[in-house]
Amino acid sequence: MSIPIYTYDAVIVGAGLAGCAAARELQNAGKHVAVITKLHPLRSHSGAAQGGINAALSDKDSIELHEFDTVKGSDYLADQDAVEFMCQKAPETIRWAERMGAAFSRTADGKIAQRPFGGQSSPRACYAKDRTGLTLLQTIYEQAFRAGVKFWDEWYAADIIYKDGKVSGVVAFNIRDMQMAIFNAKSVLFATGGYARSFKINSNAHANTGDGLSIVARHGLPLEDMEFVQFHPSGLSGNGVLISEAARGEGGRLFNSKGERFMERYAPNALELASRDVVSRAIMNEIREGRGVGPRKDAVFLDVTHLGKELIMERLPELRDLAITFLGLDMIKEPILISATAHYSMGGIPVDIPGHVRKNNDEFVEGFYAAGECSCVSVHGANRLGANSVLEALLFGRFVGKTMVEEIDSIPLRKATQEDANTALNEIIWILNNNGNETVPALRAELQDSMTHNAGAFRTQESLEEAVRKVKELRQRFKNIRIADKSKVFNTELQEAIELGHMLDYSAFIVESAVARRESRGAHYREDYLERDDVNFLKHTMAYMDKNGDLTLDYMPVTLGKHELKARNY
Amino acid sequence: MGTHKITTQDVTFKVFRFNADEDYLPYYKEYKMEVTSEEVVLDILNRIKWDHDGSFSYRRSCRHGICGACAIKVNGRATLACKESMNDMIELFGNEITLEPLSIKRSVKDMIIDKGDFWEKHAQVQPYLVSDIEDNPESEHLVSPEEAERLLDSDICIQCGACHYACPVVEVNEDFIGPAAFAKAYRFEADVRDEAGTSRISEVNQEAQGVWDCVKCYECQEACPKEVNPIEKITKLHNMIFTKGVAKNNVATRHAVGFKHSIAKHGLLDEGELVRYSEGNIGVIKHVPVAIKMFKKGKIVLPWNMPKADKLDEIKKLVKSSSTAKF
């Protein structure tokens, strides 16, 4: 059976904020662009962002303060040139999104309203009630659609075509009928999102299985800072569904089983609005020391009742709805139950500011770009501040799109051949025919359990070594899987198997990078190395996987700047 | 309720199964499960797939009611699976629960339907802000909070399709644009920043496909999991069609005009006059036999016997103050 080869100037994988923003730039510049997404663009996880998008818009705020907060929040691991670029471009990005139709909440004089967020010196998060991501995703998709971008919905990107330091396309299949196709292009952008799905308690969509990261890693390309996984302080008890930081931004308070406002002990100045890693650990510690609440004593109270019904309905209506749906608790009348949840991936595909994917510390891959949560630029370093993620996705997505427009004519098209689809084809044939005795849901559950327990908000040498061992064991057992569904129509079981393969591969990066980083920095908290160690670890992890699946670790210097290293207190 | 106590119940699920490639007809399969008070419908779909039958297929993504992927029917009622608690479902329907796709005739595999028609209708209404977009604007548009509120939450529609496939007109008229796309059209028509002029509103004013073919059954409002209330937006579009001056002289618009005149004149609805307005002086003749029957049963009165409402003056004032439409 011959596989069709479609030729484009550019192919984008992922249709969230970053993918759609880049696609619009390319299309408006007259380039022939295709966007491949395993969902429909409007189902992308960008739409789940709730609380806000940062920009120093007001007279009382400044770009420099935004930079400082971001660098401090990152525990000094962010590259300061990238942070500077992001913070400077933030105001025009917000205004551009507004001009495209984003339905922001407004001040009395008609300007975009802003609210306080954790780790920020000024109310800086522009918001649309508690549906900021939704309005931004809708807006950028709508305008990309208006521009005439071709979207390939429910197509699963299975591989890249990578040879001799150049990427020249994507191999994908239609989830509906498993028809495979080669998308041959001068340049490829990965905007495939985050990877917190490998943790048991997480705030991520089912789709966030880190496919893009593993596809890249399997070609021997590096992944950067994978050990830094952010735990958000307020996931709903039990399932980890997100309750936005907006709840604390608007004045929400945390209490333990003794009725103590325990943040007074952990962050006496910033209290509930300390950075996310600080608040998450405080919550986990309260639970660990027996002061948890709820039926399993595995949560703390988040109380917003003092804000009053009117303000809650005006600014936090979705959150109230979520707590009613999942806990049966109405936050207008009573406190709700929350705990830390795996949320955001700071690490990812290493790129420079214009979005070129790194081949190593000094070289780049021709025709290959990445943007959004799957990339590591790195503006978040070891810990991201709330409302900087949608900013990063929209801003860098658009900017990398512009870079691609500028460079595309000087990149030669390397013609794809049928053989380029072989790896993806063999993977599918193998999964369909493998006749082992392991099941995908069981292996996935074991992975998620181990990641949460051994590589979670608190880590030790012992727990991380156990996680490394577990991932190795699961990767072996994965070779022995069997799926029940052999059909070619919406074979979502096959898809879950491919996704589990990706989760296992990038999880190896998380735990092996973490075990080597013997310090505590941002979200990576080692109980056996409590201090940040700038002498030995002020550097980015660059990890590579060989053909046998074994990892080697290397490091890359952090780009420092005007914000000097300091202890981080809130 | 609350989760201070977690309770469990036994439930029998009757689940719609169909694979377009292999099955000639769909069938139902039974799964018995112990359901906890913490679970939502999506948890059940996941458990069927992960614990019972890996081939069972459905769409899902965000799992907290914001991406719109997982809409299905539970005992015939449109539901966003990730946002509907099992306890509420059991309270409503008892311990036998039927899970079906939003539209059985469009099923491709199990809960997954072909939503091609839905996205075509979405595309039909210019689903984007029509405005020149500067690349680097120095300021935002100024939009007052009151102007922002005019969207009436139409911007939170997540395109789940629950209302579209609950709409009886969509079921019988393939040209009908449908409630979700109408809500989308309203979202931009209500936006003070939009510069589409009359192109979008004219699209929803077309006969056979437009808002005049809505039968006002309120099914869309019932089905919507986000309380977007599409029929409210459809009614607003009716008004906008007059205020924007794109109304055409047809049965539907004349019906609306007749309605208003009758209320303004009598404070009550003169059903005989309404028919004359809608159909015109000649068209009304074909309704005479029905009118005679109705008259005999006392359901309508002759024009000169039409009573007036008690507080007609107040009603007239109300009609005047609330009417911005150019009739």
Structure at a glance:
With 570 residues, chain A is of the alpha/beta class.
If you had to describe this structure to a student in words, what would you say it looks like?
The complex is a heterodimer of chains A (570) and B (327). Chain A contains 16 helices and 20 strands. Chain A is an alpha/beta fold. In chain A, strands 1, 2, 6, 7, 8, 9, 16 and 17 form an eight-stranded mixed sheet that branches. In chain A, strands 11-14-13-12 form a four-stranded antiparallel sheet. The longest helix of chain A has 25 residues. Chain B is an alpha+beta fold. Chain B is built from 14 helices and seven strands. Chain B has a five-stranded mixed sheet with strand order 2-1-5-3-4. Chain B has a two-stranded antiparallel ribbon with strand order 6-7. In chain B, a hairpin with a 2-residue loop joins strand 3 and strand 4. The model of chain B has no long low-confidence stretch (mean pLDDT 91). Classes of the chains: A alpha/beta (570), B alpha+beta (327). Chains A and B meet through helix 3, helix 4 and helix 10 of A and helix 1 and helix 4 of B.
Observed structural traits:
heterodimer, A: 570 residues, alpha/beta, eight-stranded mixed β-sheet, four-stranded antiparallel β-sheet, 16 helices, B: 327 residues, alpha+beta, 14 helices
The rough form of chain A would be described as globular
Share of residues in strands of chain B: 5-15%
Strand order in space, largest sheet of chain B: 2-1-5-3-4
User: Largest chain interface and its two residue counts?
Assistant: A-B, 70 and 69 residues
**Unreliable spans of chain B:** none
The helicity of chain A comes to 25-40%
What sort of overall outline of chain B do the alpha carbons produce when their principal axes are compared? globular
The average pLDDT of chain B is 91
What structural class do helix, strand and pairing data of chain A support?
Answer: alpha/beta
**Range of helix content of chain B:** 25-40%
Structural class of chain B: alpha+beta
Stretches of chain A where pLDDT falls below 50 for ≥5 residues? Answer: none
What's the quaternary structure here? Answer: heterodimer
How widely separated are the two ends of chain B? 52 Å
Number of strands of chain B: 7
